[in-house]
Structures are given as structure tokens and as C-alpha cells.
Sequence to fold (496 residues):
Amino acid sequence: MRDNLDAAPRHDDERKRHSLDYLRQAVQANNEGDALLAMHLYLASFEEMAALPGMPDEEALSGLKRAWQLACDHKERAMAEYIFEKMEPYLSSQEIASCAEKLQMLALDKLEEFGLSREDLQDMTEMISQDFLGLDAHIVKVENLGEFGRQDGSMERLASDGAAEDESADGALAVIAQALPTAAPEQEEEPLNYDTLVGFEGTVAVMRDFGIGMQDNPHFQKLVKDLNAHHGLSSMPIVDSLLFRSPAREDAERFLEATLEELNLPTLRMNMEENPQGVPILCVTADPRGVVSPHKFNPFRNGFEGGGVVVLQDVDLWQSPMIDLPDDPSGFFIAQISRGAREAIQFIRSAVENPDVYVLATASSEGEIDTFFLDMLEPLSLIDIDYPNASERRSIWNDILTHHPSMAGIDREELVRLSSGLPRFDIYMAAREAIEEAYKAGLVTRQYVAVTRENLFDKLAAYQPLDSEEYHELEEAVLKEFRDTLGDLDDLFEDE
Fold:
């Protein structure tokens, strides 16, 4: 009897049933005035349908749009951004533009809560455009540094899309934004540093060999003092430019943030994006931590007084301004690229040569970095952040199970073994997805539902390569639980 069961259609039907249940309960919650619960239930309904093959049906899309409207009505900006990412593939260009405008209004409303009027923001943007870049611009995005940004949330970023056409060329870089500090954090969180970072113990040990993270260690400080005396130097030499490279960009980014917290110096970040026309744009974000007058923090003009950090994020995605061009011994092309690009290149080179400035970069180990940027960063030391070893995975699962009691009953040594070969970020994401699924089940049943072993294994399997031993073992464990469930149903039918 069991051999003839087709599990996939049953599974699809179950997801459709769950989607309709969530949708019905969302309508009920909204009618009862619980907009927050309704918003989450609408979203859960859509996610159930989105997991099925093909395009979600109209009811699920309609529910997602109602969740969007509720998020906007209640000024839940973070949730609205999340829902917009889900909706975007199913919207027309006109609807996307309308939603983007609404998100911008929510961001401006948030800044107004901090005491910045819209007129102040416009003046601020004009100041950046005219004084720093020499071009017209307007605010298009306000982005708070989130989980992988500064943990105190004390800085937001103003971005502009005004790269003037007469200042740019195909393939050229164009600086479009500089960040400014805003309000104090709404709540304090534990800072992300080498002491609180989980699952990077091997990489932290390498960084301590460079002297980073050892500022408060008295034995290390004594060693530095002795070395300075023996070598006749006044201070420890600055380290080379450091490139954090990992199979998962998120792992490299998280380690970068912990390193910045250890250094605790004013920081200038650079990352490459594309504007709507597909032109590469260099976005600049300033983090004036430790600066007495943060509103006057402008390292492009004033440099770093007392030291600083320059960060090049995802440098393997950067497009060289010299791409597809013949040899140019006269430097003619460099003279033609935008002023912003020239200033950015010169600034990076001066930072590399400055002994008071740390230059850090991140990249995926799968990507190839243009030699233009490698040469610019020399001398360069490579910090490879590989997949976590067994000890590091044990630390990760200890951290997850400590902070999420609903998973406490699952064998952590089994989790350590079956998460082998996964990046740290994927492990945390699998655990988060299992927790959210159990949470949603609790919303539906109106009672606490713990995370089950099979549920977590199912999420982990989604991140493991299909040809890996771990995937096959995870898959077999989930199927065994499913077969056991079917056996219980057979017993029930026989009793009847």
C-alpha cells in the first residue's frame, strides 16, 4: 500500500491547504483589529504557495499585497522592504516605481522621527552633491546598517543616483554617495567583536597574529614595547592590506564587521552597484565612529586624523575603469573617467600607503578579482575564511541552541556532523527557517510548537549539495519520519 503512495502531490496539497488556512486566519485577524498578526499570516500564506512549482495563485498574491499595505499603514519599514522583495517579481514597472516611492517615504518618515525634517534632508543631499561630488542628486535610499553592519545601529546611509552623464564613461566608476550620521540607537545590543563572534575561532587566531584584537592584552602590549625598543621604532608597523575571502560572502562580511569593531576607528566603506541603466556606480558610506565631530567627518577632503579604516566590499564584483581598453601609456583614458572615480582611486592608493590607515577588502573565493584592484591594494595579505571545521560548527550550534530554547531537544553532535561543508551563514539560515516554520505553526494552532528534528533536517538538506553524503543522510532521516507518519495513519484506518 505504501509503495503506491505519491508523496509529492500530497505534500503540494498540504501546502495549498496551509496557505488557505493562513489566508483565512489573516482575514479574521485583520477584521478583529490585529493588523500585525494579519500581516504575518498573509505573508505565511504567500510563502507556502511560493514554495510550490509554478507561479503563486491570485489569492496568495492578493494576500501579499494586503500584507504590504498593512506594513505601510503601520509604518513597519523593515517588514515593508521584506514584503516588497517578495512582490517585486510579480509587479509591473509602474507598480514597482510606486512601491519604491512608498518605501522612500517610509524611510523619510523614520528620519523625521529622529528630528530631521524633509527640508533638512534635501539640503543635506544638495550639500553632498555640490560640495563633495559637484553634481546634482536626490535621495533615493535610506538604509540602516543591519545584522552584518554596526551592531549599535547608530548610522544610516544616504544614497544618490545622480551620476552626471557628462562625467562618466562606459565601464567607468562613479562615486554617488556619502553617508552621514543620524540618530542614537533605539536599543543597545551586544557588540559584534572577536569575543562575541561565533564559529570563526581559526580566523580570529590568524588576525591576532597580525596584532588585531590584541589591543587590551597586557602581554601583547609588553611584547610590542620590547620590539619597538629593540628595533628602534616608535610604534608597531601597520599591517598589509587584508583581503577576507570566503565561499560565502556573508561569512566574510560578518568577520569584517567584527574586525571593524575591534579596530574601533572611523571607517569609509566602498561597494559597487549598478544604476538602472546598468552603469557601475561606486557607493561610499562613512561611519564616523570615535570622531568628535561626526557631522564634519569627510575623509575624502580631510583624510583620517589619528587613523582610520577603508573597506572595499565584494571587490571581486568591481569593474575596472580600464576594462576592455588598449594600453594607454599616455594616461589619456584615466583623464577621461569621472572626477569621482579618479578621486576614489587616488584615495584608495593613498590609504594603502598611509601607515595610520587599515585597508580591508572582502570577496568570494569563487570570484576573480581584477588585477587593477589587486595591484592597487599591494602589499596584500590574504585571509581565507574556509568552511567551519567541526569545532567551529559545534560553537555555532551551541550558540543557536542557547538562544533558541525551542530547539533544545535536538542532538547537537548530530547537527555538527550533518552541517559539515556548509558556510556559517547557511547554518544560521537553516536554523532560522526551521524556527520560523514552527512559529507559524504555533500561530495557526494558537499554542507553542517546538522545532522538530525532521523539520530542521529538512532545512539543512536544502543547503547541502545534492551529491553530498550529508544530504543523503538528511533526506533519509526526513523520509523515515514521513514513512513512520504514514504507518500511524494505516494503523488508524485499520482500527476504524
Confidence is low (pLDDT under 50) at residues 1-7, 125-188, 328-336.
